[in-house]
Amino acid sequence: MNFLKAEWKNLALFNYEVDAKLLEKYIPAGTEIDLWNDKCYVSLVGFMFENTKVLRFKIPFHIDFEEVNLRFYVKRFENGTWKRGVVFIKEIVPKKAITFIANTLYQEHYETQKMRHEIIEKKDTSTFIYQWKNDQKWNTIQIETKKNPVAIEIDSEAEFITEHYFGYTKIDKETTFEYEVQHPRWEQFEVLNYNINIDFNKTYGTDFEFLQTTKPTSVFLAKGSEIMVKNKKKLKLISLI
Asked: 41, 78, 158, 227: which has the fewest C-beta neighbours closer than 10 Å?
């Protein structure tokens, strides 16, 4: 059964090249860092959840909402093939019930904050803004794009960032949760300008404070699509680190 069905829309992706050693303590057992052109990435991602259903039901007041997360990329070898997935450092949403469900059932790292978003449409451009409030201060990520979506090229950096179809959660040194995320291949909008005004230390801790003064390696805006999250399974493994 599908655990969750929704639409992920207008995904703003700010991607940073980092030292893989930074992420060692966060790597779930049985997975390893997934590199692109020998580069290790973390991504700051803001997007909209829309038409959300949990176990086929819509929860009142929890159907459309924002999410901002910090994630990195891993892979796991199984049955002769690589599964490519993501690990979340933290996921921020404005709904306490979503945080409770995700943290209780999936052992994820959700946090509830006041959030808001805005889309500013002009003749030739669109601007997407995601904000969340931390210690009475609004944090903001913003991207201005051209109007018409274009294909994400094969073997591109954008493909690497968007084409990961599994989620992995570190439970302890030997236990990992794995779940599958299904969606069609996405399109992207050409980015014209962007702005980041957030407190990385207060939001993500001292490990990621250096991102405060680091310029993103790349910035994308993916159109998104309908998605389905399959029920999790527990992997009892020996840690690779």
From this structure: 78
Please report the pLDDT score of residue 114 as a whole number.
Answer: 97
User: What's the mean pLDDT when you consider all of the chain?
Assistant: 92
Coil vs helix vs strand at 129 = strand
CA–CA separation, 181 vs 166, rounded Å?
Answer: 6
Residues 6+ apart with CB under 8 A from 5: 51, 52, 53, 56, 226, 227, 228, 229
Tokens of residue 56, six digits: 């086929």
Q: What is the pLDDT of residue 241?
A: 47
- Which CATH number does 2-236 carry? 2.40.400.10
Q: pLDDT tens across 110-163, in order?
A: 999 999 999 999 999 999 999 999 988 999 999 999 999 999 999 999 999 999
Domain ranges of the chain: 2-236
How is 75-117 classified by DSSP, letter by letter?
EEEETTEEEEEEEEEEEEES-HHHHHHHHHHS---EEE--EEE
Nearest residue to 50 via CA among 194, 226, 239:
226
* 102-139 residues labelled b (16+ CB within 10 A) or e (exposed): beeebbbbbeebebebeeeeeeeebbbbbbbeeeeeeb
Q: Are the CB atoms for 116 and 139 separated by under 8 Å? A: no
**Tokens found for residue 183:** 């969606």
84 is written with which tokens?
């490519």
Question: What's this model's pTM, rounded to 2 decimal places?
Answer: 0.93
Q: Note whether 173 and 239 are within 8 A (CB).
A: yes
